[in-house]
């Protein structure tokens, strides 16, 4: 709901208020983002509010105020939300409010980029128009608020009203000025195989902390999601502000405490290496940033993001449906497979209860290793004599669905496509482009290249019964030909994704980028699940999945049982541990199942039966993280259905401890007065007992011990 009261505009969500107002000079100021306030004209409190913010009369006028979309150089000298080189060639800017508009619903227009849609929720959008008359520059700020959630979705539109071209040097999507306090910032950094490590940094006076990535996609190295929280915040307590950018290119979330102790947080496209020429009367849209407030710790914030993204971002019809249990041949065969081998794996998979067979890399061109053929999307008939359609039919005859891997954004220098179109690769004229994994990137800033990709993938999808696609992207972006190129590419990527996912709504798409190098909400808008990491070791996955779930819904986390010793870290773990960890997310196998011993095969069958029981919970259940491996030896989580009738519990102790007494595991979010039956043991417990006394987990005396439970209300 949006309420305009005098010069105050009050956006109210389920439990939150976001309050802004205009001062007498026409500046757009920020008043409050946090727990819900009553409806008042808060602009009347300007002086009291200014004191709180450390108002000092001898300062640069706006330097002390909390603002909504601050500029630099005239009246505020902190880090700005945007910077332009105006028609006079300088960067000084200052905008005043000219108009407010309140729209029912969501804005939806972010120039081809994904954004929240209204769905069956009630949403309103505030548009504030700001204008810098000295340089003829206009900004429209959009704020969408939903009655059902505690989030505000923000983006900006920058318009050049002047008679000459201008340059945009930076344009953040959201700027949040928070009052004096002790804050920590939590960001999610890493590398290939150890994506999204959760890192907490106390914010200190004067030091800018920037969680940014300039490597092309959203990145293994830094996720476009961050949290600002009170120093005492944890899973269940404290104030938390989440910032999640719906964007798959270079991004930045920057926080800095100013001289008076106020905090400014900015999130948007990374200004580093960014420049956008804006011609007369042309406009530039920023991606959308979804900011969330929780007064009850990280857990509540996560559940909020999960609901919003499942209901109002993810377009796939599979989003809230049980997903097929898959087997992927990659770690089982890598490039070394024949049709016969694949069919033998598929037959055994079917006997185990698996539902979908996925053929990974190596099925096209002359690709027997990673040195060639990307771009040549024609089947390698030496390996697959029946073609993709023939193979799909044979897999279907076995009783499995068929899925296929692509890496459509890429081009191998050793490919027919490159020989025909060498200028379709991203490169600068004066030097040879850097090959990473022996491949280059197709220039998706060009329509003809996007059309090629759309047609190449569509042609294969039309000719065979392909019900799942794994969309991979295995390199970082170098040799960009101009500032802002990464954004042009990202727009092209979204254009391709929209065209293909709209044309094939019945295909289940899974995103991937050398593991979890592009795990972001932009990708989720098109593909409801993402390969979380190439590191499939159960112990490494505890932290990776734990921190990925901070923002992203459980069922978007693709998680496979692989062989032991693990191929990435060499660790030996029990099949039970590998299965138990993989239940969090879209569950599957990625190993040569024909090599499983009889005992292992029986265990796999049981795992699959259990997965079939719990997967409805993954579709839209509520996640509670119960024990945090970042703080000790235990890691556990719980997923409970919205009606609280079914509860899945996962518990793990990483290293065995002699004579250890394991802490009881206190569940959360259950119905206090109801009884719950443990479906394995038949024991019955009260919801009160499970939450306030907890269940006992009897770990085996071994490293990497895990347990799972399914409880049902009775
Ligand atoms: C990287 C992916 O993350 C893997 O799962 C696999 O698909 C390979 N690419 C194939 O090249």
Which terms summarize this structure?
714 residues; alpha+beta; ten-stranded antiparallel beta sheet; 13 helices; 36 strands; binds (2R,3S,4R,5S)-2-(hydroxymethyl)piperidine-3,4,5-triol
Write up what this structure looks like:
The protein has 714 residues and is α+β, with helices and mostly antiparallel strands. The protein contains 13 helices and 36 strands. The strands form six sheets. Strands 6, 7, 8, 9, 11, 12, 14, 15, 19 and 20 form a ten-stranded antiparallel β-sheet that branches. Helix 4 packs parallel to helix 5, helix 7 runs parallel beside helix 8 (485-503) and helix 10 (538-548) packs parallel to helix 11. (2R,3S,4R,5S)-2-(hydroxymethyl)piperidine-3,4,5-triol (DGJ) binds next to loops.
pLDDT average, as an integer? 95
Helix content: 10-25%
Distance between the termini: 39 Å
| Poorly predicted regions | none
Largest sheet: 10 strands, antiparallel
- Which molecules other than protein and nucleic acid are bound? (2R,3S,4R,5S)-2-(hydroxymethyl)piperidine-3,4,5-triol
Structural shape: globular
Which band does the percent of strand residues land in? 25-35%
Task: Output the structural class.
Answer: alpha+beta
Question: What is the tally of helical segments?
Answer: 13
Could you tell me the number of beta strands? 36
Query: What integer value in Å does the Rg equal?
Result: 26 Å
């Amino acid at each position: 709901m949006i309420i305009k009261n005098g010069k105050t505009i009050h956006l109210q969500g389920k439990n939150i208020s976001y309050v802004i107002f205009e001062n007498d000079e026409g500046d757009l100021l920020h008043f409050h983002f946090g727990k819900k306030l009553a409806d008042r004209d808060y602009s009347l409190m300007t002086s009291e509010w200014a004191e709180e913010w450390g108002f000092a009369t001898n300062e640069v006028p706006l330097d002390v105020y909390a603002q909504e979309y601050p500029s630099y150089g005239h009246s505020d000298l902190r880090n700005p939300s945007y910077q332009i080189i105006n028609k006079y060639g300088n960067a000084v800017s200052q905008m005043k409010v000219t108009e407010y508009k309140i729209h029912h619903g969501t804005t939806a227009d972010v120039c081809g980029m994904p954004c929240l849609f209204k769905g069956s929720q009630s949403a309103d959008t505030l548009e504030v128009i700001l204008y810098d008359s000295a340089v003829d520059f206009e900004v429209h700020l959009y704020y969408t608020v939903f009655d059902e959630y505690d989030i505000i979705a923000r983006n900006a539109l920058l318009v050049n009203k002047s008679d000459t071209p201008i340059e945009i040097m930076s344009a953040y999507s959201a700027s949040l000025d928070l009052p004096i306090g002790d804050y920590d910032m939590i960001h999610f950094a890493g590398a290939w195989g150890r994506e999204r490590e959760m890192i907490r940094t106390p914010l200190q006076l004067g030091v800018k902390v920037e969680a940014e990535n300039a490597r092309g996609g959203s990145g293994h190295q830094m996720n476009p999601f961050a949290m600002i929280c009170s120093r005492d915040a944890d899973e269940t307590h404290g104030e938390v502000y989440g910032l999640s950018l719906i964007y798959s290119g270079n991004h930045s979330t920057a926080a800095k405490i100013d001289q008076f102790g106020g905090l400014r947080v900015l999130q948007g496209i990374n200004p580093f290496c960014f420049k956008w020429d804006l011609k007369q009367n042309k406009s530039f849209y920023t991606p959308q940033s979804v900011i969330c407030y929780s007064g009850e710790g990280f857990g509540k914030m996560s559940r909020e993001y999960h609901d919003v993204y499942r209901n109002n971002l993810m377009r796939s019809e599979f989003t809230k449906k049980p997903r097929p249990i898959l087997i992927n041949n990659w770690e089982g065969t890598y490039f070394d497979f024949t049709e016969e081998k694949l069919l033998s794996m598929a037959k055994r998979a079917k006997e185990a209860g698996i539902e979908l067979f996925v053929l990974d890399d190596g099925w096209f061109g002359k690709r027997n290793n990673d040195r060639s053929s990307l771009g040549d999307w024609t089947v390698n008939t030496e390996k697959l004599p029946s073609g993709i359609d023939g193979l799909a039919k044979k897999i279907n005859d076995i009783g499995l669905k068929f899925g296929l891997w692509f890496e459509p954004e890429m081009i191998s220098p050793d490919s027919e496509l490159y020989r025909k179109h060498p200028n379709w690769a991203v490169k600068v004229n004066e030097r040879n482009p850097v090959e990473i994994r022996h491949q280059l990137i197709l220039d998706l800033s060009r329509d003809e290249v996007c059309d090629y990709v759309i047609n190449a993938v569509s042609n294969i999808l039309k000719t065979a019964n392909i019900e799942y696609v794994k969309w991979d992207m295995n390199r970082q972006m170098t040799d960009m030909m101009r500032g802002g190129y990464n954004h042009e590419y990202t727009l092209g990527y979204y254009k391709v994704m929209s065209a293909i996912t709209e044309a094939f709504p019945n295909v289940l798409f899974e995103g991937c980028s050398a593991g979890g190098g592009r795990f972001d909400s932009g990708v989720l808008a098109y593909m409801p699940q993402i390969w979380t990491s190439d590191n499939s070791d159960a112990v490494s996955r505890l932290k990776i999945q734990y921190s990925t779930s901070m923002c992203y819904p459980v069922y978007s986390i693709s998680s496979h049982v692989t062989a032991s010793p693990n191929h990435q870290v060499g660790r030996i773990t029990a099949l039970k541990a590998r299965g138990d960890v993989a239940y969090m997310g879209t569950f599957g196998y990625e190993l040569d199942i024909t090599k499983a011993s009889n005992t292992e095969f029986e265990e796999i069958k049981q795992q699959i039966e259990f997965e079939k029981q719990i997967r409805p919970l993954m579709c839209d259940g509520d996640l509670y993280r119960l024990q945090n491996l970042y703080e000790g030896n235990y890691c556990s989580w719980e997923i409970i259905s919205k009606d609280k009738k079914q509860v899945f519990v996962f518990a793990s102790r990483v290293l065995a401890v002699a004579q250890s007494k394991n802490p009881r595991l206190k569940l959360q979010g259950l119905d206090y007065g109801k009884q719950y039956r443990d479906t394995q043991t038949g024991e019955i417990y009260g919801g009160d007992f499970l939450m306030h006394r907890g269940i006992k987990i009897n770990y085996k005396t071994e490293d990497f011990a895990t347990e799972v439970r399914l409880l049902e209300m009775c």
